[in-house]
C-alpha cells in the first residue's frame, strides 16, 4: 500500500509498505478520506515531537476490509469513521469517563503520549472499539467526526444552556464547527470574532448571530455593545492575546475555554480577584472522549452540521506537502486527502 510518510521535518515521502494485519481486536480500514489538521502541520514543521518516519493523519473515514478474530460487532464492507484516540480503559481517569486525559493515551496518527501510524495511507488499522458505523454518509463528511468530536467535548466542558450568550474567538474550521455545535445546543446569541472577511461571512451563514472584525473594532467593546458580556467565550486560535481577550468578554459567573493550542511556554496575566469575586472560570479542553466521538457521528449522520462548505482543498496522497504549505500560509479552510485517488 502507498503511505505518505513524514521522513524528516518538512519532508513527506510516498512509500510502498505492507498492508497492516489487523490484530485480534482490530479492524483494517481502507481510507477513503482524511482531513488535514493544524496538529499535522505542527508535526510536519517540527513544532511537535514526533518520531520519524511517521504516517500522520487522524481525521479519517473509510470501509472495513479485514477484521480480527475477536471482532463480532463489525463486518467487512461496513463503512466507518475512525476515532484516533485510544485510551487504556483501565486507569482512574478512564474509569471516571475522562478517557481523553488517560496518561497512556495512544493516538493513531495524531498527538498523544504514544503515537502510531495514521491515515495518510491507503489502509489503517484501528481497535474495533474506535470505529463508528456511518452507513452511507460520504467519507468526506464522516472524516469530520474527530474534529467535531473535539467540539462536542468542548461544548460539554462549557456547561452552557439554551439561550446563553457565547463568543467564539477565531472562525477557522474549528471555530466554524463550534458555532454549529453551539447552535444545535440552542445557545444564542453566538458572537464570532474573526479578522478574515470570508470566514466571518461563513460564520454568519452557519449560525452565528454577530461577527466582528477584531482588526477594526476592539473585541471586548464591540461584543459588549452588541450582546453584552457573554456567559462563555471559547478561544479557538491558541494565542496569549486572544485568550486574554476571551477572558475579558465573559460576565460574572462566566467561563473562558482554551481550545486553540497555545505555545508550551506561553503565560498570561490574570486577576485572581476576578476569579474569586466574580466566580469566573478558566478552563481547557483537550481532544475528545469515546462518547463525544460517537455523538459527533450521530450529528453528522443526521445532517445537523454542515461540513461541505468547510472543505476548500482536495488532494491526492502525493500532494500532502502542498496541503501543508497552503495551510501554513493560512489559505483555505479544511483540506481533505483522498488516498484512493
Ligand atoms: Zn486534529
Ligand atoms: Zn486510561
From TrEMBL:
Species: Natrarchaeobius chitinivorans
Lineage: Archaea, Methanobacteriati, Methanobacteriota, Stenosarchaea group, Halobacteria
GO biological process: protein tetramerization; small molecule metabolic process
Cofactor entry: Zn(2+)
Domain Alcohol dehydrogenase-like N-terminal: 23-135
UniProt-recorded name of the protein: Galactitol-1-phosphate 5-dehydrogenase
Sample GO molecular function, one term: adenyl nucleotide binding
UniProtKB keywords: Metal-binding, Oxidoreductase, Zinc
Protein family per UniProt: Belongs to the zinc-containing alcohol dehydrogenase family.
Domain named Alcohol dehydrogenase-like C-terminal: residues: 173-300
Amino acid at each position: 500500500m502507498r503511505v505518505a510518510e513524514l521522513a524528516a521535518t518538512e519532508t513527506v515521502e510516498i512509500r510502498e509498505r505492507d498492508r497492516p494485519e489487523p490484530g485480534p481486536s482490530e479492524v483494517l480500514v481502507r481510507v477513503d478520506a482524511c482531513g488535514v489538521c493544524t496538529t499535522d502541520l505542527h508535526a510536519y514543521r517540527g513544532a511537535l515531537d514526533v518520531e520519524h518516519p511517521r504516517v500522520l493523519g487522524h481525521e479519517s473515514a473509510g470501509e472495513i476490509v479485514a477484521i480480527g478474530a475477536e471482532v463480532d460487532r463489525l463486518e467487512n464492507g461496513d463503512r466507518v469513521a475512525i476515532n484516533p484516540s485510544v485510551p487504556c480503559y483501565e486507569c482512574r481517569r478512564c474509569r471516571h469517563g475522562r478517557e481523553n486525559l488517560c496518561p497512556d493515551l495512544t493516538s493513531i496518527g495524531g498527538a498523544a503520549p504514544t503515537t502510531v501510524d495514521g491515515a495518510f495511507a491507503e489502509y489503517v488499522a484501528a481497535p474495533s472499539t474506535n470505529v463508528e458505523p456511518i452507513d452511507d454518509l460520504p467519507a468526506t463528511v464522516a472524516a469530520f467526526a474527530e474534529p467535531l468530536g473535539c467540539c462536542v467535548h468542548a461544548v460539554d466542558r462549557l456547561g452552557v444552556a439554551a439561550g446563553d450568550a457565547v463568543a467564539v474567538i477565531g472562525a477557522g474550521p474549528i471555530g466554524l464547527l463550534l458555532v454549529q455545535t453551539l447552535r444545535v445546543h440552542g445557545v444564542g446569541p453566538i458572537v464570532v470574532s474573526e479578522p478574515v472577511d470570508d470566514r466571518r461571512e461563513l460564520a454568519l451563514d452557519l449560525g452565528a448571530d454577530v461577527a466582528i472584525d477584531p482588526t477594526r473594532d476592539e473585541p471586548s467593546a464591540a461584543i459588549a455593545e452588541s450582546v453584552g458580556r457573554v456567559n462563555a467565550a471559547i478561544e479557538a486560535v491558541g494565542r496569549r492575546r486572544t485568550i486574554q481577550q476571551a477572558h475579558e468578554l465573559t460576565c460574572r459567573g462566566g467561563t473562558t475555554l482554551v481550545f486553540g493550542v497555545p505555545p508550551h511556554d506561553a503565560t498570561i496575566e490574570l486577576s485572581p480577584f476576578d476569579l474569586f469575586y466574580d466566580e469566573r472560570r478558566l478552563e481547557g479542553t483537550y481532544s475528545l472522549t469515546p462518547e463525544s466521538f460517537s455523538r459527533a457521528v450521530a450529528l453528522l449522520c443526521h445532517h445537523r452540521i454542515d461540513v461541505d462548505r468547510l472543505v476548500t482543498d482536495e488532494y491526492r496522497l502525493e500532494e500532502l506537502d502542498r496541503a501543508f504549505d497552503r495551510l501554513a500560509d493560512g489559505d483555505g479552510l479544511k483540506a481533505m486527502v483522498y488516498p484512493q485517488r
